[in-house]
Fold:
Amino acid sequence: MTVKFKRDNTEETYTLTPNVALQQRYAHSKDLAQNLPNLVQNLGIEVTSTHEVSLAGTSIQKASTDAFLALPVDVLSNEYIALSHDEGALGGPYVQLVAVEDNTQVTITPKTAFGVHPAGVPFNVTLNKCQSVMYMSNQNQDLAGTRLIANKLDSRGVHQAEHSAREEWCGTGNNSGC
Structure:
């Protein structure tokens, strides 16, 4: 299994043993967390393997703990509906996206306002492989029901992460994948 970090173009390779869990920790100094809203960044992590693997992750930080489970690409759709609650550790609930393919175009229809993007008015973002973006609403606003529709099957939204039959997965240091 190979883990590639888009931010610094480094990679690590691991030998996996069937039915034996591998736990790998990455230092905060790797600077993988996406804390700036409305900014496309190169924070994706690509994981590839020649065999199917299960991939789960957590981000444990002061006042914030997040987790994700990666799913195979063959179970994906190009449409997602956000799940959220009305408060986030960064100031408000957020939607985060990561792409695993270049020129992935995502149309987002926010349930509540995302900064300059008003509620109910669709807007678009284009991401390249392993690029990520986060959109945040104001505190005490629930994003549940926000729609995300991509032009490709391998664009991911909101606290979701996936991998393919070859086990290719992109995610960020927060907890979202692509």
Residues 154-178 have pLDDT under 50 and may be disordered. The chain is about 0% helix and 35% strand. Residues 2-17+33-171 form one domain. Residues 1 and 14 are 5 Å apart (CA to CA).
